[in-house]
Amino acid sequence: MSNEVIIKDAVKRYGDFTALNGVSLNIKEGEFFTLLGPSGCGKTTLLRMIAGFNSIEAGDFYFGDKRINDVPAHKRDIGMVFQNYAIFPHLTVKENVAYGLKARKVGKKEMEERVAEALKLVQIEHLADRKPNELSGGQQQRVALARAFVIEPSVLLMDEPLSNLDAKLRVQMRTVIKKLQRRLGITTIYVTHDQEEALAISDRIAVMKDGNIMQIGTPNEIYAKPQNPFVAGFIGVSNFLDCDVQGGKVTIQGEMTIEIPVKKEFTGKGKLSARPEQLFFSETGMPGKVLFSTFLGDFIEYEVELDNGQSLIVNEYTKDTAAVHEDGKRVFLNFDPNRISLYIAETGEVLSK
Hints:
This protein has eight helices and 20 strands. It is of the alpha+beta class. The mean pLDDT is 93.
């Protein structure tokens, strides 16, 4: 039976180093929730605390209404998929998948049925009698998934499970994982540093930095409405522009003034964030010239140097244009004020609605 996972003010220290600084989360039952951030941000530390592998300096951890701080790892009813798969090399595929059921003393007949179902679920039933050294990386990953799913855990934890696969296989496997999770409805907590992977696979994402949560939201919310410059810069590509703010009136480097809907009145230095697809070529706007273009099939990526010397990345979709802008061409850049993000330069607080 799946559970919601509630974490209140979690703290983890290693000597003088604080790996987690009062993290709180409420992960819904049946949700696919991703911890995303750069190396050293605390995401794997938090996952290991949920699993029971790391001690807890402060805070409370719940599965449903049960506090699990003092519950040993083997009694937490979790499934775990590791980066290195942790498959037993001396056991066959079906023996690997059955391992957790044996530990739970499941009867032989039921065990055989559940193993067969799990292997079918991940589409490797034809490999049941092979050893791990006879499998590809993707097949080994499916064994690890089947072993985690077969015990029907309350919570499934995944720590960078696709990082050892090549790019094409990673895309295939993330689709497999999401479909399985949705079909089984298991509360899943997934750790990755890959922004594209997180956006593709998650119901919600917590973006982490230096032991703190910077933003929690759906993939669309995280991408379209980043709540601080770190999230804007870490997720995808963002262009940052210094500006002066007076209420909702924003002047960009003295060259262009626009009105942006804001949450509160502010006067001072600001910072704008615009995705490459949020910028477009126009008759008026920020003047500059095309440095070079890269044709990428469904869109053309341009590097444009503004007259003040700053370079911006602009994406123009091929379906919307008949020709490529040549290198050296004089252009003007503009954007939709309702789609970009505005921050207070000093604090990073978001001003735009």
